[in-house]
Amino acid sequence: MLILNAVENELDARRNAQFVEQANQVLVPTISHLQERDPKLIPIVYRESYRLIFFLGVPIFASAAAFSPLVSRIWMGRYEPVFVEFATLLAAGWLVNVLANPAYVVDLGTGALKWVSIGCVVAATLNAGLGFIAGVRFGGIGVVAATAVSQAVGYIVVLVAFHLENRVAFGQLLPDESRAVLFASFVGAAVLLPSLCSMYAHAYFSFGIAGTALGMLAVTIAVLMWRHPMRRQLMRWLYEQAPA
Questions:
Q1: Per-residue pLDDT tens digits for 136-190
Q2: Which residues, 6 or more positions from 162, have their beta carbon under 8 angstroms from its beta carbon?
């Protein structure tokens, strides 16, 4: 959504293509315009959009999973394992969805709808088939798991096809500058989630212990995000959007 900042220098060097000025609000039309005017900019738009989505999406969805036991305790007054399972599964599925969104949007903007359509059909078909089978076998948790898996697989199809057809290196899917954020987010969630679940399940819950552990994770991620180069682009964009 912050294409203006992401490709500002490239646009200046390429005849100051001012049609990208409002690209954060009209992304698909902007991609379409780039396809006609200067298609060489599209990989730049994709790369920078993906970097931004990765920077924001990974810590948000990892934190959603890590905090779910505490949210369950606060909202429901007790630890509810089904709620935590649902939240974790859906967070994983939505993360894949969000990370594939730049490829999805670029395909829409360029009119490359073949793999978008195939991905949607795959997701819908899997959701219906797996949802029925898993629902019969495992109940509600099976339906949620099938939904998360179906959604993820459908968007992975779109993402992989985009990279193959446009010869975009798969290495871009793990931006170098975001590896520390990725590590802290997922290791923190992988360690805290089972620990907190075990704590709540065995009834020796402590808001102090849980709050301290989650606070440490939040501070670690916040520091890494503050030092991240995408944070400066985001802050600059927000400053430019603020009323004069």
A1: 888 888 888 999 999 999 999 999 999 999 999 999 999 999 999 999 999 888 8
A2: 103, 106, 107, 115, 168
Q: What does the block give as tokens for 108?
A: 């829409």
Q: Where are the alpha helices (DSSP H) in 111-228?
A: 114-138, 140-165, 179-201, 207-226
Q: Which tokens is 42 given?
A: 């599209």
pTM more than 0.85: no
Task: Tell me the one-letter amino acid at 73.
Answer: R
Compute φ and ψ for 38, nearest 5 degrees: -155, 75
Domain ranges within the chain, ordered by starting residue: 3-241
State how far the Cα of 93 lies from the Cα of 113, in Å rounded to an integer.
22
- Name the region of 220 (left: φ>0; alpha: ψ -120 to 50; beta: rest): alpha
| Cβ–Cβ under 8 Å, residues 138 and 146 | no
